[in-house]
Amino acid sequence: MLPTIAVRDAAARYGAREVLRGVAFEVAPGEVVAVVGRSGVGKTTLLRLLSGLLQPAAGMVAVDGAPVGVARSRKAIGLVGQDARLHPWRTVRRNVSLPFEVNVDDTADFALADEWLRKTGLSGAADRYPRELSGGMRQRVALARALVLRPRVLLLDEPLGALDELTREDLRGELARLWTSLEGAVVYVTHDLDEAVLLADRVLVLAGDPASIVTTVPVAFARPRTEKLRRRADFAALVDLVRSML
Which range has the worst mean pLDDT, 68-72, 99-103, 154-158, 219-223? Predict the structure, then answer.
């Protein structure tokens, strides 16, 4: 089966500094892969390579067998960061429909926007403005906006990092539920090792200077997973294994 994402011996530089070297991995259709590593190791740089925002200094990044730039031009990559980056003058519905105006044509597809508002539990907030929303609700809007074009690749850069623990728990459940309906691949960057093991099918550990993928930890727990899984001894043991690799 052709991988949705294929990274082959990729490197990344900022000026004279080499941040990533020899990065290689694949993500299969429907697979969720978490990337963990110490602060400043290059996790966000890796996402920039995967999104096509940064060209590799060496090696290659492909989506569905074609260079990542092709997927980017087809709007097949969705990206959600820690900051929702909503337009404050647009309602929730118009924030979610924005990709249609920017990427497809000048007509907002409110039917599809409303579908994703429903899927993310935001139907009742469609006519509100970002200033009227909690942090968790703003992240839901950002997620719906990223998914409205049904991307082949969904990239998430610590999207829950700024939220309180209870809101994080709620949104982790939402993410896990939404991913089951995606046919593409998900790459999830997080500094929270529990979160990585809870959400992912595999955990990639990024380490070194310049950094590379030093190990891959499979996560075999059956889905659907709930927060109760975190109380199990075998879950804690797997988190400890990931921690020992950092």
Answer: 99-103
How much is the CA Rg of the chain, to the nearest whole Å? 18
Whole domain around residue 125: which residue ranges?
Answer: 88-150
Question: Residue 210 CA to chain centroid, in angstroms?
Answer: 23
Q: Which residue has the higher pLDDT, 44 or 106?
A: 44
220/123 same-domain check: no
**Is residue 81 domain-resident?**
no
User: Is 106 a domain residue?
Assistant: yes
223 domain-assigned: yes
- DSSP letter, residue 102: I
Question: What confidence tens digit (pLDDT) does each residue in 35-73 have?
Answer: 999 999 999 999 999 999 999 999 999 999 999 999 988
For residues 47 and 155, is the Cβ–Cβ distance under 8 A? yes
